[in-house]
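Whether sequence alone determines local backbone shape is best considered at the level of individual chains. When preparing material for the folding task, we compiled for one chain both its residues and its backbone structure tokens. The sequence in question and its structure tokens are set out directly beneath this paragraph.
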Amino acid sequence: MVHINKAQIVNLNPTINKDKKLSQNFNLKELIKKLTSQAENYIKKDEYYRQIDVGCEANDPKYYAKGIAFSIQKDNTAQDKHMLWVSMLHPSMQVENSKPLAYGNKEEIVKFLKDEKSLKQIEEKLNTLSEELKNN
């Protein structure tokens, strides 16, 4: 768990705070679809790319969170490897909790995002993150 103060919230996840089009409705399949598209378009094998962030408000009552975000980052220690993370922001906006979802090259990350079995795994991670935030 990461503990932050209110001054850090603006920089916590720009997608949660600024993307008003996404923030209206939580739709996991749409978020994954957008993340997959960005992964296909922006991840480069040997080039630097900015971290990919996709998120929205967690207005689904089954999740104890203010926001949900996914990010893909280049692993700086291994060439052509990337990390996929899911994060939830506590309703108080004081705590963020993150868990890794996948690790691999571009093709492995995209394959994971497109696999229907992965959707169930992502939902399980979201439930785990939600419970951890609730018990915090």
Observations:
- The radius of gyration is 14 Å.
- The chain has one domain: 2-134.
